[in-house]
Specification:
Length: about 375
Amino acid sequence: MAKRDYYETLGISKGASADEIKKAYRKKAKELHPDRNTDNPEAEAQFKEAGEAYEVLKDDDKKAAYDRYGHAAFEGGMGGGGGRPGGGQGDFSSAFSDVFDDLFGDFMGGQRGGGRQRASRGADLRYNLGITLEEAYTGLQKTIAVPTSVACEGCNGTGSDDGSEPTTCPTCAGMGKVRAQQGFFTVERTCPTCSGLGQIIKDPCKLCGGQGRVHKDRSLAVNIPAGVETGTRIRLAGEGEAGMRGGPTGDLYIFIEVAAHKIFEREDVNLYCRVPVSMASAALGGDIEVPTIDGGRSRVKIPSGSQSGRQMRLRSKGMPALRGGGAGDMFIELAVETPVNLTSKQKELLKEFEALSEDNNPESSSFFSSVKGFWDSMKG
Ligand SMILES: [Zn+2]
Ligand SMILES: [Zn+2]
């Protein structure tokens, strides 16, 4: 492929002024920058082509030679023309970098002018707190030890031994990043001197090494409201990690986990409790006493003839709602227990009872009549 005309490459006419050439190149370079054209494989070659054109046209001597002889003026010296425009890169990487300085000034926008934020916000912390269902019911105050960073007392969080203000990092000139030239490409890295903060402290505090904060276990009294459940998150604003060099403090999040209970099962604000009753009590009916989550007891009347699985509701004996709106209910589910380990006397009485039974087991009667009908239909 024939090498494109340098003026054409930059989209300008032969009579363009130095200023117009520079402007045209900056525009092209931005347009074609590989970072902005990751999906256009041709951009990189065009980007290099534009760079090569600019390298020649910005230089009065080279421009004059090019105007006179065209590409032939640089044949040999720049790696033989069209094939590999990058062939002569050693020659003009220095020319490139001063344009890059301009470009990066633009790309970075306000960052350079305003300077970097010297203080950074502390991290948010998570604390997992396991509690019992009873504690979730009443709410509680708990003192927890939070491993965290706090503002250093030696320097009041400034990081500086004598209280002097941090100064602009000389390595990165306050940008927090440094650029390194790798062939045609400029790579950016976090500044090793200031770790990206853009500022350094001349005389760092000996207690915190210039960080402005130190690690410490902090004990904190936390109010856990009644009604919390597993997954409830409590945010304590400003109780997280201290910021760097006086930056704002992060938040502390307490994640609640309520342990499973031996007696009660919870579903939202309602509690469920399975209560075994004897066969005779279920048949005859009567009062039973059931536990409640507040530690008390409630008397519950069991109707005669209650079956297993029968539910009864105790209003407002459930969990309190976290955001108001009253308490949930408690549900009792009966589990009728068949007696075991019968004495001969008991067996005798039960046999006698069975012999006297007539309409005492409506469910069984209805089941067996269905079964009989099924068998009859199968006989066809
Ligand atoms: Zn730096
Ligand atoms: Zn300090």
